[in-house]
Amino acid sequence: MVSSFACISAFAADECMKFDGVTEKITLDREYFVDDEQCAILAMNDAELTIDATEDGAVIAGLNEEDGLSIAVWAHDANVVINSGYYENTPDNLVDPSHVDLIYASKGANITINGGTFNGSIDFQTPNAAANKGTLTITGGTFNANAYKTDVLYVGGSHSATIDIAASVSGGTFKGEITET
Q1: Which backbone phi and psi does 10 adopt, to 5 degrees?
Q2: How many other C-beta atoms lie within 10 A of the C-beta of residue 6?
Q3: Distance from C-alpha of 121 to C-alpha of 149, rounded to nearest angstrom
Q4: CA-CA distance, 13 to 35, in Å (whole number)?
Q5: pTM for the model
Q6: pLDDT tens digit string along 86-140?
Q7: How far is the C-alpha of 58 from the C-alpha of 158, rounded, in Å?
Q8: Rounded CA separation 148/62 (Å)
Q9: Sheet containing 122-126, strands listed edge to edge, beginning at the edge strand earlier in sequence
Q10: Are 131 and 77 in contact (CB under 8 A)?
């Protein structure tokens, strides 16, 4: 069953929108600012999430000071399609920029970006050897580095994992470094 939110106004500000094992389509119709949470939007456990936006649709991720995360959209073992919108990190009081990832993918996530403006790093990696797969497809959008990270796109593994990530970039404008490990 596919649910569809006409807009995100149903979600409270400062609260992570969580999509756990469901198929959803959301439309960002206003600025959605989340602070003191790990992420603004989380898709997990085989969720299928499609994100569209109106002209005013934006996701701004602040900083969770407990664990230092600032993530606008996190796909964890899920499929996410981003068609439009404005996405930015604004982590005040940042000590460690290693977890300031605008769009973050983990554990076999599949992300497709067809458009939008992204001010921050798209971080597509596998956090451990057991989850060493996934796909990233970028067909459009504007990607800008920010003050927290110089790379606009990072594809690779962590913890010395052998990775099997398929990354395909066929469109978009990139202003910053692209790193592949």
Answers
A1: -70, -15
A2: 10
A3: 7
A4: 9
A5: 0.84
A6: 998 876 666 666 667 788 888 888 999 999 999 888 877 655 545 557 888 999 9
A7: 29
A8: 12
A9: 17-20, 39-44, 71-76, 103-106, 122-126, 151-157, 177-180
A10: yes
